[in-house]
Specification:
The protein is mostly helical. The protein is built from 4 helices and no strands. The radius of gyration is 15 Å and the shape is elongated.
Length: about 120
């Protein structure tokens, strides 16, 4: 059994929410373009975080975490756009955006810490 890891666990939970959002957009709204964008960027966060846990060096770790942060910022954009285009409600957007912004803050803190320790 693996040790708990805040960013790994939170990014996985967020990816699950993103997959469910994708299914909702596809099934309820027949929306395929924006839904694919948010699916790609939203699940990429956790994939890069997971890759970082097996990084070959501090630089590799920091690069993967930085990519995860950039994907989180992109996901924030898609969620905002989905709300503004009325594909998701304000409440749905606020909930997802709160999780996304939390991930961004954690990832920024991680990359700053790694950089200052180098």
């Amino acid at each position: 059994m693996r040790e708990p890891n805040l960013i790994v666990d939170k990014s996985m939970a967020f990816a699950v929410r993103i997959v469910n959002l994708y299914k909702y957009l596809k099934d309820k709204h027949s929306e395929y373009v924006l839904s694919k964008q948010v699916l790609r960027s939203g699940t990429s966060i956790g994939a890069n975080v997971k890759e970082a846990t097996r990084a070959q060096s501090k630089a590799d770790f920091n690069t993967k975490m930085h990519i995860a942060m950039k994907e989180a910022v992109e996901t924030e954009y898609w969620l905002e756009l989905l709300e503004k285009t009325k594909y998701i409600t304000k409440d749905q957007a606020e909930s997802m955006l709160a999780d996304c912004v939390e991930l961004i803050k954690i990832l920024i803190a991680i990359t700053k810490t790694v950089k200052s320790n180098s």
